[in-house]
Known about the structure:
Elements lengths: L13 H25 L3 H5 L1 H12 L5 H36 L7 H16 L2 H12 L3 H25 L3 H9 L4 H32 L10 H10 L3 H29 L1
Amino acid sequence: MTAPAHRSWQRFSPAVRLGRFAVYLVSVAAIAWSLKTIEVIPEFLYDAPEQTADLFRRMWPFDWPFWGEAVRDALIETFHIATLGTVLALAMAIPLSFLAARNFTRHAGLNWLAQFVFVSSRSVNSLIWALLFVAVFGPGALAGVLSIAFRSIGFVGKLFCEALEEVHAGPVEALTAAGAPRSMVLAKAYWPQVEPAFWSLALLRWDINIRESAVLGLVGAGGIGVALDAAMNNLYWDQVGLILAVIFIVVVVTEIVTSWLRARVI
């Protein structure tokens, strides 16, 4: 009687091991190529901690009078840009979401067109949108509002479309079978199921837009970024420190407020 052949257990098959090795090799090669391409200067890295500490020393103490001179009004403008941009984005994204939802609009061409708008919006950074609208409308808050709005369409529209497609079909079919008009089906079957998602998306996107609108002024699109850019260009580091502290506090406070509101709404 012959002895059974010895079998050794392996976690991965040879093909999987070869594929993992290829991924590791390509990753290492990409990192090495990137480091060589960007031409990192070691001399700048050696004294980076010292330069960073010196920069923070220049930021303190803050230039407190600068708050009333420029920061306060710029901060209010930042809130206006974020709020109006979010409202405008919701007004444009929600109708497109219904066109993109396959269970609501049963037309492949309209579904594809709405999805194309969402992808186009998400693929362009808010700073690029700001540069475009500054070139069209000139520097100011209008360019900031439009850049926030057009950047937010893809985010809001995509997620709200997914919420629509997850709606339970029972209420929709019941109202449709009873002869209810399309507006009644929308108000009584779709909206109650997607209302929590709508408010959650609106608050989340407004929170994100507060942070994004804080830097749009670096390219001339209004808000507190204008004051930050002017202070940095003039090397007024005590003013820069004040602006950065204000931005940090605003981001933390808006995060707390939106989280509390989302918990209350949802």
